[in-house]
Amino acid sequence: MTSGTEARRHPWPAWRTWRKGRPFWGGLLSTLAGAEICAIPLGPLKIMLVQGVTGILSILMGLVMIMMGLSAWFAPSYRMFAGIVTVMCAAAALVLSNLGGFLLGTLLGVIGGSMVFAWQPHQPQQPPPDGPEDEPVEPVEPLPEGPAASPAPPAVPPAPPAAPPRVPLRKVPHAPPLPPKEPQ
Predict the structure, then answer these.
(1) What is the pTM of this model?
(2) Residue in 68, 62, 53, 47 with CA at minimum distance from that of residue 100
């Protein structure tokens, strides 16, 4: 079989790689929050609270949140901007859109925007550098024992590390005093 046929038969590895390469769950929550905030003003009048001009704002904030969730998926380099805008829209929807879609939209938006903002791309681990620990160690010969052996030299304590040189700070001249206030 060819690799093209293999990819068509097993799409899960490709899906998993795509999903792990972006803030998928944060984008999903942001998109769901935007859809929920958009859907509330379009519901029946008995379900909605008092709408008016805020109905248009609700739809616009929901669309912006949907776009930020999708941009987190398809342009992960803009994740910080998308996360901040999503959290700000979710917080504004709390006041402007039926308590943020009856609190569900605001909670999903704040959590999703935070997840988008906090996501970091995975950095592949680099192998450790080859160092001197890989070199073989030579065996040490034992010292001769008996009266002909010389005594061990006294242990000398290591010298303390040198302190960095002191740099004098520049003296900042004092600002001139303020003129006295005029009586009113």
Answers:
(1) 0.60
(2) 62
